[in-house]
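User: I'm curious what two different proteins look like when written out as structure tokens. Can you demonstrate?

Assistant: Sure. I'll show them one after the other, since each token string lines up with its own sequence. Here's the first protein:
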Amino acid sequence: MRVVAAMSGGVDSAVAAARMLDAGHDVVGVHLALSTSAATLRESARGCCTLEDAGDARRVADRLGIPFYVWDMAARFRADVVEDFVQEYAAGRTPNPCLRCNERIKFAALLDKALALGFDGVATGHYAQVVEEVGADGTVRRELHRAVDPAKDQSYVLGVLDADQLARSFFPLGDSTKPQTREEAADRGFAVAKKPDSHDICFIADGDTRGWLAGRLGEQPGEIVDETGSVVGSHQGAYAYTVGQRRGLGLGRPAADGQPRYVVDVDVPRNQVVIGPADLLGIDAIRGDHARWCGEPPAGEVEVGAQLRAHGEELPARAWVDGDDVQVRLQERTRGVAPGQSVVLYDGTRVVGSATIAETWRT
């Protein structure tokens, strides 16, 4: 097969490209230029789109002896990921930009361009597995499963892939642990073998999400109120708060009962941040929209595992399709679930699909 290997400049994508080549595929390395000002990002930035990263990817490709290109997708990334991120926070939601990037850039824009150029698919350094199941009629169905290494499993951020995208996707690292990947990179002579992992949000190099948002949305002073509606403080922008947040509230006095207080709601129309005790954070019902299915959607009500954060615990639940929405009922209450986050559903290790959390409540 002719395969595009998405090379971020890190150790994972380097080894993924090498394994695809070892498997006999015709591999071309591609680095995505996602920033219009990559030179302004500090070295070893939290992201994967600096000039340093592009150079690291090129050196790996040279060592492998494969063609290498840089594809400029900065405008698409800005519109589909960065502006979406700002709009979601402005609406009082808490988005996950990694899922949006996978959905709209790596497995939409990148894959579409690769297919248009005659390639058969895209390989990335994500830790997940693709399992092929042969049906009774002989048709082959590709399923997305968790990686063998729970500590590195990235199936959550791949839960946005649909069946067609999954059919063209390759994840060569799904059967490995991170130490094994680094050891293999060192054995192959890759200079990135000891390169630190990228963290947090790639387009916010200093990690200051609140300051970054303030620079784009400006100050929007408002009230912080408790669950009774009493004003207990003020804020400079409700977009800087998320459900479940405890630190950085800037309250002048403790609660009467001395217990910690958390953000329990971000009321955008009133420009209010509502705080309350931890008990008010508990929810066990979720309505999700923007559903994405890695195969056929569930038929009727099914038992699933529901994961609500990239590195969160899988919770037992029941789920069903409700028109354009997905309804999820957790067997136990959990805390700190914010609209805008994603719920990814599992059947054992298999990813069923995902949805964006639109509403939560207690049954």
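Here's a second, unrelated protein for contrast:
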Amino acid sequence: MTTTKWAIDPTHSEIGFKVKHMMFTNVSGKFTKFDASIESDETDFENAKIQFTGAIDSIATGNADRDTHLVSADFFDAEKFPEIKFVATSFTKIKDSEYDLTGDLTMHGVTKSIKLPAEFSGLMKDPWGNTKLAFSLEGKINRKDWGLNWNSALETGGVLVGEEVRLVIELQFIKQ
């Protein structure tokens, strides 16, 4: 059995998230500095070793004040916890291009197991002869499970920042 290593292609990948603001609109953000890798059997990605790290200070939501608040001690506390990390514990093929990715997500000093549906988008050679593969992942986590508890009550009832965080991830890898 041959093991193949894949490295992230950061220019064609995005680690994004969405959170409700004032309980009725979504604010989107992403990590601009990250790394990921896959080690797998040449012919099948089931039980592949998958790892990801993202730099907390690279959070970008399109608003400098909000980004500064997110990396502060109120939220991620980037000074104390500079990265978010994911290590897969299983990658199970459900059918055709559908997988379940389970692993340990560590952020803000807390590690919890999460499960995300993953769609294998394909494998192909680019015009320069590099073999590439892609996965799309979407899922939901509750930020309070990782101690990200800051919020502000609204006069009209409810809170400023939603607890549920939707993950929207597009990954492209290059065969090493």
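A detail about the second structure: Residues 3-175 form a domain with the Lipocalin fold (CATH 2.40.128.110).
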